[in-house]
């Protein structure tokens, strides 16, 4: 097997474009020529058939076949045979519960971390690639056995990261305040806020920010920092990353 290869996308659809349109060139250069078929995991949405149709259409237009895991009699076997995995967005709690229910957490980890097959996630699929889903934006509509996720990277991501709107009259908490509350708990890992249009490419021990909008990094006990596309985030992949001041 090769080193881990991950493409963690903030969002599937960017305003003004179609499904995965804003990142299709990233997807093609990430999957390359070797991958012929992608295993799609549509568990984050209720209508899995419709979701699989949307994903299949997109991937076929990029030159890849797509198999949806919900059409397989044996999901574990489907993961074991897969050349590449793509987990789409939707509700993170529903997605993680289905991954546990189908005994896929260990299998996906093994395929990605030991066998080196490419893993793509968008939105909820990016959330579950991290250490936990504690920093998702979704409602807990179902109850997974644990908030621990695939742990393909040792930190958290907040997809669809939103900056505070200075013109708004809405008095609810901002995304930044919620992440700060998470970091009030002891031993909480870094949180990378990925704005829409941004993605993190992980190749082995190297992590690079890609896309158009940039990201905000939150470390426990420190001021958040702003980062442009092209930023090297490899330090987040080391186990000795700065968890606390």
TrEMBL record:
Name of the protein described by the UniProt record: dipeptidase E
Source organism: Pomatorhinus ruficollis (streak-breasted scimitar babbler)
Molecular function GO terms recorded: dipeptidase activity; serine-type peptidase activity
PANTHER family the UniProt entry points to: ALPHA-ASPARTYL DIPEPTIDASE, PROTEASE S51 ALPHA-ASPARTYL DIPEPTIDASE
Upper lineage: Eukaryota, Metazoa, Chordata, Craniata, Vertebrata
Chief location: cytoplasm
Catalysed transformations (reactions): Dipeptidase E catalyzes the hydrolysis of dipeptides Asp-|-Xaa. It does not act on peptides with N-terminal Glu, Asn or Gln, nor does it cleave isoaspartyl peptides
UniProt key word Transferase: no
Location(s), subcellular: Cytoplasm
Region (Disordered) location: 222-245
Record-linked Gene3D superfamilies: 3.40.50.880
